Amino acid sequence: MLAYLLLVLNVSLVILNSAVCSIAICIVAVFKFVLPSAVLKSKGTQLANKIMWLWATVNAAILNISNPVEWDIQGGEELKKDGWYLMISNHLSWTDIVVLCCVFKDRIPMPKFFLKQQLLYVPFIGMACWALDMPFMRRYSREYLIRHPEKRGQDLATTRRSCAKFKHAPTTVVNYVEGTRFTEEKKRSSKANYQYLLQPKTGGIAYTLAAMGDQFENIIDVTLAYPGNTDMPFKDMLMGRMTKIVVRTQVLPVDDQVQGDYFNDKPYKRQFQQWLGDIWQQKDERLKRIYQAK
Fold first, then answer.
1. How many CA atoms lie within 13 A of 208 on its CB side?
2. How many CB atoms lie within 10 A of CB 277?
3. Taking 80 as the threshold, does the pLDDT of residue 143 lie above it?
4. Residue 113 and residue 125 in contact, taking contact as beta carbons nearer than 8 Å
5. For the chain, give me the number of helices (H) and strands (E)?
6. Can you tell me the distance from the alpha carbon of 61 to that of 230, in angstroms, rounded to the nearest whole number?
7. Cβ atoms within 10 A of the Cβ of 279, count?
8. What is the pLDDT of residue 284?
9. CA distance 168 to 38
10. Which of 21, 191, 195, 275 is the most buried (most CB within 10 A)?
């Protein structure tokens, strides 16, 4: 009974926190839209980022007060608040967004998540994400491009325009390279050679690096695990049942292995796929050690 009472209370608090912060960011968005210069618009983005920081801080308090959670965080000590980073992570649950914001909100610039173009038109959420300069992506499928060859290259151009605004302010861009949340069913259907991960998709991270690879100081590789709550971590967190959150961070260089023409240079494309595959294999072995030690 207590767990379900906590579920109702925490859902209410999270919705209230999200609603208040979204409305506040939307108000900033209105002023940002009419501001005459890029410098003033940047000030608006900074204010929106502070509201997002507040949102993350309140969520962290809700999580810690209602859960007997043990935080096991290692790595990333050299990160700084005024850097430019590309963050890649495995993806298990909606909990991941809360955890990433909680862990890194005071260590690096507030994370920006790539969003589907359709979310731009969702009331309040779309405007809030626009005010936060979240990059919206419009990806075309291979089949669509065969039917509409004139659209080829436009998705990369859209990504470049979305990322152009990050040139003047320290930024962290988050990319879930698996493309979807991990489940056992998805693992079986993907036929990936991993025990705890799905096959990484190189296209999304390649688009990000092609758009602003020369701006990133480092790539932050994050491994997330919930050893005692593997089935439904988000529901468990809301019900006060989250027991342990493990975060492992390694900081990677932006070197020749990740800089090149992924879309036209086939040898580089194979090299890039091998690079990401090696990282994912190491991540899978890291997760194996975490789960075996629980």
1. 28
2. 15
3. no
4. no
5. 10, 8
6. 22
7. 17
8. 96
9. 10
10. 21
